[in-house]
Structure formats: C-alpha cells, structure tokens
Amino acid sequence: xxxVDDDAMGSGGPDRDMVDGSSKRGGNPAxxxxxxxxxxxxxxxxxxxxxxxxxxxxxxSDDPDDxxxxxxxxxxxxxxxxxxxxxxxxxxxxxxWGSLLRRAVSQxxxxxxxxxxxxxxxxxxxxAWHDGRVQVLKESWIDHAPAAKYDSIVSIGALExxxxxxxxxxxxxxxxxxxxxxxxxxxxxxxxxxxQTIAYGTMQPNENNAFISTEIFPDSELPQAHExxxxxxxxxxxxxxxxxxxxxxxxxxxxxxxxHRRRDEAVAIVGEEKVRQYEAYLRxxxxxxxxxxxGLLRLAMVPVLGS
Length: 307
Prior knowledge:
The protein is of the alpha/beta class and 307 residues long. The chain has helices at residues 16-21, 29-36, 40-46, 67-81, 99-107, 120-127, 169-186, 210-216, 225-232, 245-261, 263-270, 272-291; strands spanning 89-93, 112-117, 134-138, 150-156, 187-200, 236-243, 294-303.
C-alpha cells in the first residue's frame, strides 16, 4: 500500500489545552489527532503492508515473522464474527487507515463499507481511494446517524478512547452501554457485532504508566472485562470472548523490531525524540501484554432479542 506522507506534528507532547480541556465522551478528537495524525509515512515504516495498527492473529503453524498474513487473518476473524459473509452493509467504528473496509469489499459479499474516524490523516488516506463501495466519515459514534441499518458492525481498538482517566467504573459502564445500545439500534435483524479492545489485566487503573498516558495516548482509559460484559447485559449476548494478550505481545515485538531496523528513516520523518518515545512505548506495551498486566479482548456479540 502506497502511503503519502502528511506533515509531522512535531516531537513534543500533546497540546494540553486541546487534550485536557476539550475531552468529549466517546473520543477526544484532539487526543486522537495527537497520536494518529503524527505521519502516515512514519506508521507505514513499521506496520505491515495493510497498514493495520492493532493486534494480529497467528496460528501455531504460521511463520512467526509474517505480520501481514497474521493481520489479514485478524481482519477475516472479525468479518466472520460480525457475519459479513451474509450481509451487504458493514460499519467499522474506529476504522484506522481502512484495512478492514478494504478487506470487506474485496473478500466478502459486502457492497457498502462505512468507516468512522476522528483522525484527519486517516480520513484523507481512505477518502483518496475514491472507491464507491467505501465511505469514510470523520465523526464519532456519538454523532453517527446512518440512513439505513447495517448487517455487521466491527470496532477494533476504539473502545480504549471512549472513557477518560478518572472515570468511575459506573461512568465507564454507562458509556459503554450507551455505545452498545447505539450499535444495537443500527443493526438490521440477524445482524452481529465483533469488538476488539485492550483491557486491564493484573494492572489496576491507578497504576497507569504516566509516559504512555500523556505522551502517547492522552485522555484514554482501558476497560475491564467485567465492565464490557455488564454494559452488554440485556443489549448484546456475548457468544465468544477470548484474551489474546500473547498475540499482541508478539505484534508489538515485531513492530519494535521493524521500527528499530528502519530507525534512520523514521528519524528523518518525525525526529529523534519521537522515535525514542515510540521505541519505549512499543517495548513497554510488549512487556505489558506478555506479563498479563494488560490483555487483548476479542468479543463476538449478537443482539438480545427484543432489546
């Protein structure tokens, strides 16, 4: 996939007035831009060729270094869990650079794939495809108002951005429930949803790493597994729940190795300080997943009848 570089945002920390002062339930646009609008060319250096920025999925017989194959398997897992094979319309909430949208229209019967993102760089990247089967909207799920029902909904790595640090468990559960109720309302009869999110493992919310919480992912907060289950109660039936934290540890290890190998190119794009930050963030993240301090949840869900 060819990536056209956007101007780097610089190597300093986030704009505190923008990030801390404009938090919006369901996703802080300034915080999203701080991370994801850094530079498309920078991310293209160390992600796989599909530009997928989330946990991959390997089988035991796979080449452990073949990240692209593992990412495609992950995309196919979510498409299958969301029932894309029997549908025509799919929604991807937090669509990144569009890898699932592209996979959906090229490998399934999906005729219309819609993605939501708050990132300007991701929006422009997908919009430049000029593919009539793919629609990208720069908006939050809070504001989304589809003209027709979806057969499938997928959300990969977005839930972590919905709540804010300091939110109580009750507040988080209420927010997640609002999100799931909206998704339930957007689904056609016999529709299904697939969800992937990083979640707290043995680490407690008050043990969050200050560096990652401020310099890498400001104004984000992880869920706990029981909060998602409680939020889904009476709205969605969870038909599958798996913790693939070791898979995310492997993914982060490969991202770090690739970034380190192409370090000089990365420095030329975003500068020495930002590359050091990302090297540290990827190493810390890999440790967190391998040690179980954080987990990686994948859930398949179907609407509760009559909800």
